[in-house]
Amino acid sequence: MIKVENVSFKYRDSNLILDNLSFNVYEGEILAIVGKNGSGKSTIGKLMSGIKQVKKGKIFIDDFDISKKENSDEIRNKIGIVFQNPENQIIFNNIKDELSFALKNLNEEEINIRIEQSLKQVEMSDFKNENLYNLSLGQKQRIMIAEILTKNPKYIILDEPTTMIDSLGKEKIYEIIKHLKSQGYTVICITNLADEILLADRILILDSGKIVAELKKDELIEKIDILKKYEIKVPTILEILGELKQKGIYFNIDEYKVTNLVSIISNLINQK
Ligand SMILES: Nc1ncnc2c1ncn2[C@@H]1O[C@H](COP(=O)(O)OP(=O)(O)O)[C@@H](O)[C@H]1O
Ligand SMILES: [Mg+2]
């Protein structure tokens, strides 16, 4: 579990960016952190992943206080973060070099095993010997996800992972996120995209550095107005389900997908 306790944060000379933030991240869940631009989403991601230092409040990762120096090795391997633009994160041309970057202390054999396993998780095994620069943005992003997987982490933070990626590439990454959850990883998805909100088990809405709402996936249909209030784009499928519900037609579907809805409706029509 990750515990964020009363965290406030300012950049040098900035206003208060995070204002006494507290929340937990539970093992095995997909947690979405949403909120309009500038609400502090990336900042909390950077604090949880140790890129920025917590000065006020505490963050515990599996009871390890991340502000304690003696915990830094442990934490480095427990959590990883991937950002919006893979091109800003790539260091090497060669995929093997890129993926072994975080593994300096391991022997050759172990490094190779970790690389193979990580590439498999993101369905990029066939590209092992490719030059990174020849890949599409979506494929590059999958390599960035593989790179954090090489550390065998428990927690994965994805900060707007598909914002720059075309729709086919997005779908592939959504599949990978669901696959990672099925493998027991805990995923924190920072996002503004409707489709990514629908991947989550739980949604935290951040506004001006404060958590203003926490929603469970199955409450979403009833709470569309809360998303709208905080200027979060409402997934079309939720709008449709919301309208149907007001007319007394209630669909409880796990996967809020238009294709599912179409098949449910056509089954209903066939039964009549
Ligand atoms: N390095 C920085 N120095 C000063 N202010 C920053 C810095 N990075 C972000 N900010 C400010 O912090 C606020 C929150 O930013 P951020 O966490 O990136 O929000 P989000 O990811 O929700 O768009 C914004 O007002 C932004 O301008
Ligand atoms: Mg951001």
Protein described:
The protein is of the alpha/beta class and 272 residues long. The protein has 2 domains: 2-227, Rossmann fold (3-Layer(aba) Sandwich), CATH 3.40.50.300; 235-272, no CATH class. Helices cover 36% and strands 22% of the residues. It is built from 10 helices and 10 strands. The chain has helices at 41-48, 72-78, 95-100, 108-121, 137-149, 167-182, 194-197, 224-229, 236-246, 258-271; strands spanning 2-10, 16-25, 30-34, 56-61, 64-65, 79-82, 155-159, 186-191, 202-207, 210-216. The strands form 2 sheets. It has a 6-stranded mixed beta sheet with strand order 6-7-8-3-9-10, sandwiched between helices. Strands 2-1-4-5 form a 4-stranded antiparallel beta sheet, covered by helices on one side. A hairpin with a 5-residue loop joins strand 1 and strand 2. Helix 4 crosses helix 5 (137-149) and helix 5 (137-149) packs parallel to helix 6 (167-182). The longest helix has 16 residues, at 167-182. The protein is globular. The N and C termini lie far apart (48 Å). The model has no long low-confidence stretch (mean pLDDT 92). Residues 11, 14, 17, 35, 37-43 line the site of adenosine-5'-diphosphate. Magnesium ion (MG) binds next to helix 1.
Secondary structure elements and pairings:
Layout: E1 2-10, E2 16-25, E3 30-34, H1 41-48, E4 56-61, E5 64-65, H2 72-78, E6 79-82, H3 95-100, H4 108-121, H5 137-149, E7 155-159, H6 167-182, E8 186-191, H7 194-197, E9 202-207, E10 210-216, H8 224-229, H9 236-246, H10 258-271
Helix pairs in contact: 4-5, 5-6
Bound molecules: adenosine-5'-diphosphate and magnesium ion (MG).
